[in-house]
Design goal:
By secondary structure, this protein is mainly alpha-helical. The protein has 3 helices and no strands. The protein has one domain.
């Protein structure tokens, strides 16, 4: 694990201290993020604070999770469409067999 500066340890302690001042029910992700922003300040210049200069806001975790959700949704939809197509084919096949059986039964009644 890399070295931590005194400042980063102090900032982490400040965030945790603010977070722990509220009841368990109030300890939400949003509240913890608000504590972080209060200690560290707002993100600036299109960058995500503490992620380094190479990560811009469009690359943040929120955008990444939206992209992943979209990919999963597309995969599930594709699998769903495939299953529906298979089921329709099976129904068509079953209908064809039923029609053939009906014709055979009608012929058997004639003879």
């Amino acid at each position: 694990m890399g070295r931590s500066s005194f400042r980063s340890i102090r900032e982490k302690d400040e965030v945790n201290s603010l977070y722990e001042k509220v009841t368990e029910e109030e300890r939400t992700t949003e509240y913890k993020e608000a504590c972080f922003v209060k200690v560290m300040g707002e993100d600036g210049h299109g960058r995500v604070r503490t992620w380094g200069s190479g990560i811009s806001k469009p690359q943040s975790s929120e955008d990444a999770s939206k992209s992943i959700r979209s990919q999963i949704r597309e995969e599930v939809q594709s699998q769903f469409d495939s299953q529906i197509a298979k089921m329709k084919a099976q129904m068509d096949e079953t209908t064809g067999v039923q029609q053939n059986m009906q014709v055979l039964l009608e012929r058997a009644d004639i003879h």
